[in-house]
Amino acid sequence: MARLLRAATWGLSPWRGYCSRETQGELSKGFVEALKAVVGSPHVSTAAAVRKQHGHDESMHRCQPPDAVVWPQNVEQVSQLAALCYGQGVPIIPFGTGTGLEGGVCAVQGGVCVNLTHMDRILELNPEDFSVVVEPGVTRKALNTHLRDSGLWFPVDPGADASLCGMVATGASGTNAVRYGTMRDNVLNLQVVLPGGRLLHTAGPGRRFRKSAAGYNLTGLFVGSEGTLGLITAATLRLHPAPEATVAATCAFPSVQAAVDSTVHILQAAVPVARIEFLDDVMMDACNRHSGLNCCVAPTLFIEFHGSEQALAEQVQRTEEITRHNGGSQFSWAKETEERSRLWAARHNAWYAALALRPGCKGYSTDVCVPISRLPEILVQTKEDLKASGLTGAIAGHVGDGNFHCILVADPEDHEELLRVKAFAEQLARHALALHGTCTGEHGIGLGKRQLLKEEVGSVGMETMRQLKAMLDPRGLMNPGKVL
Asked: Which stretches of the chain score pLDDT less than 50?
């Protein structure tokens, strides 16, 4: 979904109160010179335009910018920067491509933004072990371009061409998660600069094993930590064999219930689907108009399978049986690369298609995930709630793993409408929690979902997280104000 939010978003006034600069002080000239001594003068900026660019992501949250932006060139410089900032009590905010969706890079207390995009080397490829080591500036597309002739690929696809270590930090996911898992399933080891400058290898230096029973899972601790525990300076990632053959399809249904029931039945039948995406009738109509598709305006599934030609034939047959049993029609298969690319480009551009429903307005995307068995219940109810709210919105999601989004389009000058957007998003999140789900399947907590996190994990869970944070970051300087 990250790519879906590349369009202009805005500072929704109901959320602006999350940003506070109470403890921020302007950096001294001597401190700025010390930053330059570490990374070189060309790699430090206090210019207003540069700071503003680094003061927000693609979310609704808007804060004041950081006091300085630095671009380290290697892990040694990151370590020195962390030690310098921590020693002087200056907040540290890691920054990748800025495609996050929950205000994770907002400088709520000022400080130094550490832009890691200049560290963009692929350090080590081990094709026989299905693993690769990348620096934080390497993006998903850059890695897959590098892997093109290796017979391998990295399948986690949040939509945006995000940095891979940023995807680790946010616990990113995407359309392929139902088959290949999320970032949590595909990170083998991390190199992390801790707040005081010490270097940690979460699974041990150079290790790339598939499983281990050796002590606490430090790697898992940093996946999804949103920059609050340290700066990720390298990631060892799990790779997968490129599929021999791929086929995609669309299928229309008479109702939301029928479409989602089909999703559940396909998964329960153990059909090894690679992607299964849901678009409601409003979203399908918008995609038809925006991307030039000619699909039926009805609740629709986008499905894709990976495997051998023989296996695909069996999967296609079984899927057609299940969808027809649930009233599916207008089944259209796309086997050629160009056809599939056009289909998935339309899905990835659903954000722009939704914005076109109200030209001049702006968008906000919700993000919840529930157990597969509860998916029909929450999606049907959400569709009814969306109609009753009077808001302009559509539903799309990675329903194969229980994750979906409402894309809401509102007038940024209409305060009452923005309040209704906020209320709808919170109501949806609490509905997901009531069904034993989560308030965020892939966007993260950031600034806006801290109360929902407390409701999700409870007081003991929150206290445990605070204790972990205090142990690793006793001065509270790593990306302050986020998650907790």
From this structure: 1-24
